[in-house]
Amino acid sequence: MPDIAVLGVTGQGTNDGSGQWMREGLRPLPDGLAHERMGDMSEPGSSSIACVGGTSMDRRVQTSGPLRPGTSNPVVSVLKPGGVSRNVAEALARLGCDVALFSVVGEDEAGRMLLGGLDDAGVDVAGVTRSARHPTGAYTAVLGPSGRLEFGLADMEIFEEADATWAEGLAPALSDRGIWFVDANLPAATLSALVASKPAGTTVLADPVSVAKSERLRPVLSEVDVLFPDRHEAGALSRLPAVTSEDQVAGAAGRILKMGSGAVVVTLGAEGVFVADEDRCEAVPAIAPHGPLSDVTGAGDALVAGYIFGLSRKRSGPLQLGLAAASLALERGGNLSMLSADRVIERAREDRADQLRRSP
After folding, report:
1. pLDDT-based confidence at 91, cuts 50/70/90?
2. Pick from 195, 200, 242: nearest CA to 216
3. On the CB side of 176, how many CA atoms lie within 13 Å of its CA?
4. How many CB atoms lie within 10 A of CB 179?
5. Does residue 33 lie in a domain region?
6. DSSP tag of 230
7. pLDDT at 17 exceeding the cut of 70
8. I need a labelling partner for 246 at 20 to 30 A (CA). Which of 11, 104, 107, 353 fits?
9. Is residue 144 a part of any domain in this protein?
């Protein structure tokens, strides 16, 4: 198979809106982590992965017309498994990775369904705690007619049980896994305890989950190798009042790098992503789905999983593999069970071929 490289808009970028991309003082990344280098696509080995964070039952509610406050709105409702770390873990298992989930679910039917589905997908769930005090987490996504998220409602009180003591107890099981993905459904103290226990050489990737929860990652950004915020979360972490234009996104990413993160991949929906690390700042376009957009939920988690898949298999171009996975998830209504390594690699290959045909 041909090599995969990022094909995007490259430039000097900005920081803090000054027009100059500042590299001084940034943390060097592990070799090959965020750079989309051309290289051998063979698989000399793979790393095992731990996903630590949210598991929930998600209800997707889509309106047939514009939302009208204060009255009943006709909708179509679908219930499915969710939670950022759960979604990423399932997607990684579908891609053939060795992955374990560490989370908390209730002693209820929802918890049993979630664990059964993960086990069927090939995820190691031995590290998932069962709670008798709280029900399994629940999330409701309200989508407009186009499939875009209007707002979300999260009942995640159960994750207060995932405290620092819980995190410390995971250390032996986590120590054998070279790639960790964490999400900010976990309390700040738990995230701090986790990264304090990581062995040398561990690669840590993180998702802020929401604007409100993004603050939980601020104290541990210096231990995060790759952060995956959306533009709103990037604005909250960087404390910039508005993050809409490309320059503003670059400014937010630059501030987050200065706070210690090794690399930042800002997800921009249909526009693709904006990636920044120690020596680059560039917009990378999305890979268009081969069909109409029906549901954007799950696409961001698929992007993260595709990226981690590339890292774990030591493939060049992990970001392009992430964009390919997101493209596939979009055309399947967020159904992660349809992902496979062959489909993701083929979609990335097709996109690269299209880019090359369009280049002068």
Report:
1. very high
2. 195
3. 6
4. 22
5. no
6. B
7. no
8. 353
9. yes
